[in-house]
Amino acid sequence: MANIKERLAKDGTKRFTCDIRLKGYPPQRATFKRKTDASKWVQDTESAIREGRHFKTTQGKKYTLADLINRYIKDVLPTKPKQQAVQKQQLEWWCDKLGVYVLAEITPALIVECRDELLAGQTIRNKQRTPATVVRYMAALSHAFTIAVNEWQWLDDTPMRKVKKPVESRGRVRFLDNDERAKLLAACKESPNKQLYICVVLALATGMRQGELMGLQWRDVDLKNGVAILHETKNGERRLVPITGFALELLRDYSKVKRIDTPLLFPSSIKPQQPIELKKSWNNAIKKAGIEGFNWHDLRHTFASYLAMDGATHSELADAMGHKSLTMVKRYAHLSNEHLSNVVASMNHKIFGGVA
Predict the structure, then answer these.
(1) Does 178-343 carry CATH code 2.40.110.20?
(2) Which residues pair with 18 in a beta bridge?
(3) Lowest-confidence range among 173-177, 185-189, 283-287, 340-344?
(4) 297: closest CA among 312, 308, 286?
(5) In DSSP terms, which residues pair with 264 in a beta bridge?
(6) Where along the chain do its domains lie?
């Protein structure tokens, strides 16, 4: 039931106060200078209440973006331990820029301004912020808005839906050619750090990330069947990693002298409960081998590149590298052109045979 009352303001002009009372819903009130505006508000509001649209909008006028971000950091981020520190910093940046705005006033245009500011800005290391980094900032805010819409019912929809993400550059692919690989392995074998060589061999042979390799425990490695189980991976799922051939034989020999005061395969000599630090030894080996523009993670690119050149399909690459989708492995597609040509040639031969 709605009621519109006319009254005089202090300046002598007319005001029209609307009251809406519907059973089962909180009362609503608004004041207008014109009766036509009051009548329209009553009509629209009653309709929105009956259709379940009104009170979400009301919540959007009640809470600020700072309220949303603070609740998200408190309730949601603890469930994402691997991303917690980075996303907290990203969300606090958004809070600093737009935190004072109520949610109903956060428009795509406001977010676009901040997106462009991010793109034009620099990191704490005084380097130009990349489109990929800006996408991560936007993803953190987008998920916070999604939670506010779906679970907290603070908004009808997220303003992020209408904001275009910056175009990320294609992923870097740097892999070792045969000569570089031989030089690097020789340099690692001669390193004073006796664990460097086997770690590099395993990285090349399995495609494991450095963190995955350093986190391996002996209980997770089946030397008989040649497989390792990764419990902590980037995508949060367990992954089986085959270890075969030379790498497996090397690991079996290495297991004969394993330490008994730590479960880790590659423990620090000083703090056995922590993995070894390879940065200095790795940099020395790279320098000795005369290899430029190559970092540890490129060992993983090398593994994937070798698989692609050997004819592995996109799905096989994704499985081997632990990717949930094929998007990340498409960067290696150009390396399998010869394999693709063979597949096309085989299909053509089956269709046309010896037709001239």
Answers:
(1) no
(2) 4, 30
(3) 340-344
(4) 286
(5) 217
(6) 2-52, 65-162, 178-343
Instruction: Look up residue 324 and give its amino acid.
Output: K
Q: Is pLDDT of 145 > 90?
A: yes
* Pair 203, 213: CB distance under 8 Å: yes
The top-level CATH class assigned to 65-162 is: mainly alpha
Paired tokens of 110:
């406001």
Task: Say which residues have a Cβ less than 8 Å from residue 89's Cβ, sequence separation at least 6.
Answer: none
Q: What angle do CA 233, 236, 241 make, to 5 degrees?
A: 40
Mean pLDDT taken over the chain: 85
pTM: predicted TM-score of the whole model, two decimal places: 0.58
* CA-only gyration radius of the chain, Å: 30
Question: Per-residue pLDDT for 231 more than 50?
Answer: yes
Q: Output the six-digit token pair for 208.
A: 């494991």
Residue 272 DSSP symbol? T
Q: Amino acid identity, residue 243?
A: I
Integer CA distances (angstroms), 266 to 43, 183, 211, in order:
71, 23, 11
Instruction: Extract the runs of DSSP E, i.e. beta strands, from the chain.
Output: 2-8, 14-20, 28-32, 221-222, 227-230, 239-242
Question: What whole-number distance in Å separates Cα of residue 301 and Cα of residue 328?
Answer: 11
User: What's the pLDDT tens digit per position in 299-335?
Assistant: 988 888 888 888 777 787 777 877 766 666 666 665 6
For the cut 90, the answer to whether the pLDDT of residue 76 exceeds it is: yes
The secondary structure of residue 264, as a DSSP letter, is B
Rounded CA separation 226/306 (Å): 20
The pLDDT of 249-270, averaged and rounded, is 90
